[in-house]
Write a structure and sequence with these properties.
The longest helix has 21 residues. The strands form four sheets. Strands 3-2-1-4-5-6-10-15-14-16 form a ten-stranded mixed beta sheet, sandwiched between helices. Helix content is 37%, strand content 19%. By secondary structure, it is an alpha/beta fold. Helix 2 crosses helix 9, helix 8 packs across helix 10 and helix 10 packs across helix 12. It has 13 helices and 17 strands. It has a domain of 247 residues: Rossmann fold (3-Layer(aba) Sandwich). It is globular and about 65 Å long.
Length: 359
Amino acid sequence: MDNQFRGKNILVTGGTGSIGSNIVAKLLRHQPEVIRILSNDENAMFELQQELGFAHNIRYLVGDIRDKDRLLRATKDVDIVFHAAALKHVPLCEYNPFEAVKTNIIGTQNLIEASIENNIEKFIGISTDKAASPTSVMGSTKLLMERLILSAFFHKGNKRTKFCSVRFGNVLGSRGSVIPLFIKQVSKGLPLTLTDPEMTRFFMTIDQAVELIFKASYLMKGQEIFILKMPAIKIQDLASAVIEIIKDKNHLSHEISVKIIGKRAGEKQHEGLMTAAEAEKALERSDMFIIKPNLEPNIFYNFNSKSYPDSRPVEIKDHTSQNQPTISKDEIKYMLLSIPELDFIIKNSANFNSDDSNT
C-alpha cells in the first residue's frame, strides 16, 4: 500500500462521510503527495478539518459532483480517484428519484468525464449490494453507476485511466446506518424499531470496507466489480445483540421493547451480492469475489484465475443473504464490539431525537 499511494495525488469524493473520511485517514499513513477531499457538506467538512488537523497534504474542497466544472478542477493532476459521494438512503431516494439520478448517475458521469479529461491513473467507484437485481430507486441508480464506470473503457480513447467498482453490504456503524439508531433508542429506553424480524442483510465493518477499496485499487486491471465476502445477519439477531451490549455498558436493568414497523419503501426482504448471471464467469479469493466485465468479446485483458493472486472460478451461483447461513448473536456482538466508534456513539446517544425513523 505504501508503494501504491506514496507520492500520489488522490481525490476522495464524499470525503466527509463515514467511508470517505476513513479512506482519507488511512491514506494519510501511506504518505501521499496530497489528498483532496470533495464534499458538499460544509459543516461535515469543518468537523473533519478539526479531527484531522491542518496537515500540509490535505485540501478541503467544497463542491458537488453535479458540477462538472468543479470536478474538472478537482481532478487536475490527480492520480487516483475514490468515488464515495452518493445519495444512499433507500426511502429518501424512493421519494426523491430525480435527485438520486442527478447525484448517483449524472454526478458519476461528470466525474468519469473529468477523470478521463485529466488522464488520471485509477478510478474506484463505491457501489452497494442493492445494485444486484435492484428493486429500489437507489439500487437502480447504483446499478447504472456501475455500468457507467465499467463501460467507461469505450469512452476514454487513448487515456491511461482504469476503472473499477467495489460493491458493499451494509456497513456497521456508518453514518445513517441502523446501528447508531438502535443504540440511541436503547440508550433512551425507547422501543427499538424493527422493520421485519426475518429480514436478512450482509454486514461489514468500516475498516473492512476501506480494506476492500484499497485491495481493489491494487488488484484492478480495469472494468471489474470487487465484492467482499461478508457474513449474513438476521435483523432480529442484530437488534438483540445491540440491546444486550447497551444494557451491559449502560448498566440498564429494564426490558427494552421492540416495535415492528414493517418494510420501508423500496426495501428487499433479503439482499444479494452477486446475481446468477454475474457468478457464471466470476472469480473468488478467500476474501472476495471478482466479477469480470460482462461485455463480449473480452477486449480488456485475459480475465482468468492467473490474473489475480490466489483466485479461482466462483463456486456459488446465486449469492444472497437468504441462501447464506446467518451468524450467531454472539458473533454479531463480537463484530459490533470491534467497531472503534461504538463507545463514541453510545456516549453521544443523548442527542437522539425520538422522531428519527429506522434507517
